């Protein structure tokens, strides 16, 4: 039984959105931070003191993620973009799965595993080579993964665009986030202030669950299939 479609829809995604693609989440069972201490492998001080160790971890992640593919849930989001007026994807993920599924309007709050920048000369590079063939820029400095690590400031333009989309939406669907990393975790609250309907897709409750009007306690692909049926979105 279908119900009225949202006019301005935001999908707010975290690592759980990519779990069924085989990309490890960060916390919980099999979480990547259980295996790797981010203070040694994924933060600016580590990059400055031991770039080789940081690159060993990030080449491992590139190889891991390049073997993964989007699942039907990503395709529902892509179909929603094609069939509804205004759809924005705001993701905390760095894996590029939404883009692989064809999503175009993706705001990456925490950057991307596939983008690099050189802090010495400002050069940038984008590509999915796994592992990265040369760890250094033409100028000789190590490439820095263009990822927002803990302690890094988020890109202001991305934050502003995300806050604008979320602040103007009439429905926000949060998918697969533990809602513990700031400032991303508080962004969905901007939708609540605007009177939007908030739906949380997560097998587990989170510290933000009380702010949501509806909780779909199951995996992203199945819950998104239910939303597609509800809003007559065809894959
Ligand atoms: C900043 C990229 C300031 C890197 C990441 C004390 C209190 C409050 C804040 C802080 C504090 N101490 C420090 C801080 C700030 C810190 C922070 O929030 N820490 C937290 C942990 C306490 N934040 C920062 O450092 C941020 N920067 O504050 O800068 C500043 C300002 C000016 C100038 C300089 C500095 C930067 C935060 C971004 C860090 N980067 N990742 C990398 O990947 O290497 S964090 C990492 O966590 C990922 O980005 C991830 O997206 C993010 C959130 O995790 P989730 O996506 O939610 O994933 P998680 O594994 O946690 O949960 C998965 C969920 O999916 C679960 O709920 C599970 O139930 C569910 N699930 C599982 N399977 C499925 C599923 N759901 C659906 N379907 C399934 N099949
Ligand atoms: Zn350079």
Q: Indicate how many domains the architecture comprises.
A: 2
User: What is the CATH architecture assignment of the largest domain?
Assistant: 3-Layer(aba) Sandwich
The order of strands across the largest sheet is 3-2-1-7-8-9
The first-to-last residue Cα distance is: 17 Å
CATH topology of the largest domain: Rossmann fold
User: Percent of residues in beta strands?
Assistant: 15-25%
What integer value in Å does the Rg equal? 18 Å
What form results from the Cα inertia axes?
elongated
Order of helices and strands: EHHHHHEHEEEEHEHEEH
For the sheet with most strands, the description reads: 6 strands, parallel
The first-level CATH class name of the largest domain: Alpha Beta
Mean pLDDT: 96
User: How many β-strand stretches?
Assistant: 9
Small ligands present: ligand BV8, zinc ion
Fourth CATH level, the homologous superfamily of the largest domain = TPP-binding domain
Number of helices: 9
**Low-confidence spans:** none
Helical content stands at 25-40%
Judged by helices, strands and strand pairing, the structural class is alpha/beta
